[in-house]
């Protein structure tokens, strides 16, 4: 007889491990299956999924290290501080990143023990369904659960004809583990991953060229933000070409050669020491044996679900990167909490309109809600309030006055519809507007809240006031 649980989660990434912990907090017997070792020396499953192991956490560690180096090289002189002969130890930098990853993944194991979540070591796949529940095979052993949550995440999308070896041609995993700074780095894809990793190695001294197939830069962002960030990145030294069509890619003794056609239709060639391919991600639904319980992946490889992440099979849920919506760790976490609470009979909730987006470059870019182009397409009347960081004393004192806060509000009701921020602390500042939008606040509400002085958050207040043309400091 197979071992039984109330809830079994397949996958221990941000969506999965949060779902497992929340379900355990609600009194269920919970198991979580994870098989990805991520080059663990002992071959043990590495918890935390792509995010903690080869995504969000390690990339931010390298971004922080490269920012420190760039400050020493280019910005300390403004403060009257002189430093000479600064050098980069790539091995030590990568080692620091790995130590942070080890600490974070080990922390999840502690949380599992604390909350009495049983870790099942191995990949999970469906076997079938009985009166007792859904059967899942993990490393050859069959377990039964009343409720199963699929949270198997995603993997890097690769392009046909471009073999990724994570040595010369890399996806996000290989790009986090370079053993030396490339003199010339090519990047295919000007999305979040391409811009972040391109920025890391550019700061450390690489000549970085990014090729993007889309006709415009950062099409998902507000047009004003995209235009400003393209200027900033270009000034920093990133070479960005949009509207390109990638042709043959070949490795040579010297590195990689990328043949492509530019936006004007002219044949071009990019020769680089290393190439990063960052063209999006695809759901990890292969190997789940969905057919065994009457499910199948859609044409995009996703599992179809309703607004509450329920699949067409009773007792089976799917969350995170394997379902519709943005492939963001925090979105998956919110869905994991929602599903656990729904299973418990509570009113689980996930508002997709208030999920923030962040690009962790320098400066950071963050936004939530609607863009101007979306509001125009909807025919919705709106007003705009914008305020620059160059008029903020704290930003000037920190030597970081690039960017602005832009708030969009309904022209009639004043409800905040969206916000867009360019600043080194944008990922933190956007939270205030997320909170405001979740409670249906008006721009006036933000403008009437007392903000500490001097602080960067004052720019959010000034942008809100600017919606009614009453900014106080400009």
Characteristics of this structure?
dihydrolipoyl dehydrogenase (NADH) activity; FAD/NAD(P)-binding domain; 5-stranded parallel β-sheet; FAD/NAD-binding_dom; 7-stranded mixed β-sheet; alpha/beta; 3 domains; EC 1.8.1.4; 31% helix; Enolase-like, domain 1; flavoprotein; 22 strands; 474 residues
Polypeptide structure, described:
With 474 residues, the protein is an alpha/beta fold. It has 3 domains: 3-156 and 282-350, FAD/NAD(P)-binding domain, CATH 3.50.50; 169-279, FAD/NAD(P)-binding domain (3-Layer(bba) Sandwich); 354-466, 2-Layer Sandwich (Enolase-like, domain 1), CATH 3.30.390. The chain is 31% helix and 25% strand. It contains 13 helices and 22 strands. The chain has helices at 14-25, 49-54, 56-75, 90-114, 172-175, 192-203, 223-236, 329-343, 372-378, 393-397, 426-438, 443-448, 458-466, and strands at residues 3-10, 30-34, 117-121, 124-130, 133-138, 141-150, 154-156, 169-170, 184-188, 207-211, 239-241, 245-251, 256-261, 267-272, 274-277, 281-283, 316-318, 357-359, 364-369, 382-388, 404-410, 416-423. Strands 1, 2, 3, 4, 5, 6 and 17 form a 7-stranded mixed beta sheet that branches. Strand 9, helix 6 and strand 10 (207-211) form a beta-alpha-beta unit. Helix 3 (56-75) packs antiparallel against helix 4 (90-114). The radius of gyration is 24 Å and the shape is globular. 46% of the residues are buried. The mean pLDDT is 96.
